[in-house]
Amino acid sequence: MRIVLDTNVFISAIFFGGPPSEILTSWKHSQIQIIFTKEILEEYQHVGKELSVKYPSVNIEPILELFTIFGEFVGTEGIKEIICEDPDDNKFIECAIASGSKLIVSGDKHLLNISGYKKIEVLKPREFVDAYLE
User: For residues 90 and 83, what is the distance between their CA atoms, to the nearest angstrom?
Assistant: First the structure.
């Protein structure tokens, strides 16, 4: 299964645990494939570094390095979607379209509100874990 992870889910997995952490663990065990773009990876890095200041005991760098090696990178050249109320969220839809993924995992209300757009489902982390990992 190939999925796109919103930044809030990726970062929550690393810093806070819970269902987002279960998702990252399933990726680590090759049960799912996480798709990302250059823009998504840059956002993961930026937000992760900001939180590392607040939580210095968490070192996000090794996880990001593994992610860049074992995650699935896609380019979104030629794809420009303007569908989300928050324009920063469009990159997740563009990634799903470019990769052919039909699933985004997010807690972001702007993405959740457009679930079903181009047959791309947006699920909260707990919903994804309950539906696909248990």
Answer: 7
